[in-house]
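Quick one, tokens below. Sequence please?
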């Protein structure tokens, strides 16, 4: 032991121990924080969709979770909701700054499986989010595109008809703050609606509920 005494008395050794302690502390803090965010988001989804069956899966250690919500309500417009949440690596303080630069924020993706095929495709997508990888709108060439201001953000509005455009603009007027909503999409060829949100604690239900209440009127343009 005496042969290592000169090492453990060096200032750099104490710095190494302190640094290791901070990393360990960060790991447990970040893991608990991510679990709290995902739990809050999924609790909000259950409140809104009231599924008859639900299944939750960890898909990425402390940074990824998935939920399948089965909705068997008769006469409803949904059959299932799939939710995937990917979180910043708060448990890894060494990688967290880089991840914030690249990914920016936590992400909550929702796939709403529809019982009936929608009449038209449309999108409301925040302009900065639209530049991220994987957010390309496949049928954009067939849709009318314009830039609109929703709250303090700039969104691109993609519509297939004047009626769709009017209903999208009416929704943004009645709900002037998108909150954590960054993308609303209706895709008839997949018989789905897609939503992208930032799963800020306490904000998912608040911002999602108006969208879910409004979507049935958007899906049926014959009304």
């Amino acid at each position: 032991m005496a042969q290592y005494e000169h090492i453990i008395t060096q200032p750099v050794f104490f710095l190494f121990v302190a640094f290791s302690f901070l990393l360990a502390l960060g790991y447990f803090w970040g893991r608990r924080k991510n679990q709290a965010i995902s739990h809050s988001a999924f609790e909000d989804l259950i409140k809104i969709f009231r599924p008859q069956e639900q299944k939750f899966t960890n898909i990425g250690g402390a940074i990824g979770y998935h939920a399948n919500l089965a909705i068997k309500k008769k006469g409803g417009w949904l059959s299932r909701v799939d939710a995937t949440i990917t979180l910043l690596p708060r448990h890894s303080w060494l990688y967290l700054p880089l991840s914030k630069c690249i990914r920016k924020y936590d992400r909550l993706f929702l796939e709403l499986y529809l019982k009936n095929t929608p009449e038209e495709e449309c999108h409301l997508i925040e302009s900065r989010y639209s530049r991220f990888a994987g957010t390309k709108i496949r049928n954009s060439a067939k849709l009318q595109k314009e830039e609109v201001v929703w709250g303090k953000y700039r969104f691109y509005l993609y519509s297939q008809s004047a009626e769709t455009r009017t209903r999208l603009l009416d929704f943004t007027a009645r709900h002037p703050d998108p909150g954590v909503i960054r993308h609303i999409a209706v895709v008839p060829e997949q018989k789905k609606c897609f939503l992208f949100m930032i799963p800020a604690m306490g904000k998912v239900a608040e911002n999602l509920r108006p969208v879910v209440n409004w979507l049935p009127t958007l899906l049926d343009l014959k009304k």
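DSSP finds five helices and nine strands in the chain. Residues 4-8 have pLDDT under 50 and may be disordered.
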